[in-house]
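User: Predict the structure for this protein chain, please.
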Amino acid sequence: MTAPIHVVAGVLRDANGRILLTERPPGKHLAGLWEFPGGKCEDGEAPVDALARELREEIGITVESARPLIGIPHSYPGKDIVLDVWHVTAWSGTPQSNEGQRIAWMASSDLDRVPMPPADRPVLTALRLPDRYLITPALKPTESDAVMQGIERACRRGVRLIQLRLPGWPLDALGRVARSARNLCHTYGAQLLVNSDWRLAGVLGLDGVHLPARVAASLVQRPLSASHLVGVSCHDEAEIAHATRIGADFVTLSPVYATPDHPDAEPLEWDRFAEIVARATLPVYALGGLESDDIVAAQMSGAQGVAAIRGLWIP
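Assistant: Here is the predicted structure, written as structure tokens:
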């Protein structure tokens, strides 16, 4: 079996938040489509070294720092690739066309309308997702003030994706706090998902829903439109594969470490976590015994970032 071609690509943002794309020239595979600049990783070459070399040759910049963003295995007719995408956080030089290709800085909001190779599409979701994903603790219906106060503290600390998970709450009480939390989150530029109930998310104008694995398993397609986020809780490759088939935007994969809530669950730890994520084709948050200090380890293992309850919640 032929090994997949390892392709590295870099995401560059300018001072206005625009992202650099390059057009594939005539005569090449997928000519005319726009992509993130990069190229093939040579045998024995470290991915970050390949990224620096490709961006120097292709657009004339020197990479000063970069971190992994997402890896995407993809099959094209006649060949398999792994698209290894890095966020270039600092560089020197001015990007220019060194190989006769067109280049353009594009606003994030315009990228959905740009013709891109299929393997590049999941990168757009990863670019829009933050590196921290807060899941609210299972507070009681009498503690709605504590829910709101905790969400506001998280927003003030820069958390921009929050799952409202309040099991056992009556629907009317859940609806009231979800509406207030939505307004609060939007004030800070954060997105609010509700656990399980996609109908409530649609009625209240929330940003999306997060589905437990058992709920996702009952679906054959995503329950909300593309204008909403759909996340799925996963624990193995089979559950991630199903989440992908139904069109989820991202998943959580757990547990990385043992947690008090699930003491009998066998922890994945980082090596096994990285093995599973390497075969995923959508962003994956690491979950289970983690906090903000684990973001770098999570990203080096292929994750979007960390999801947490206790690790991100301050009572």
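DSSP finds nine helices and 15 strands in the chain.
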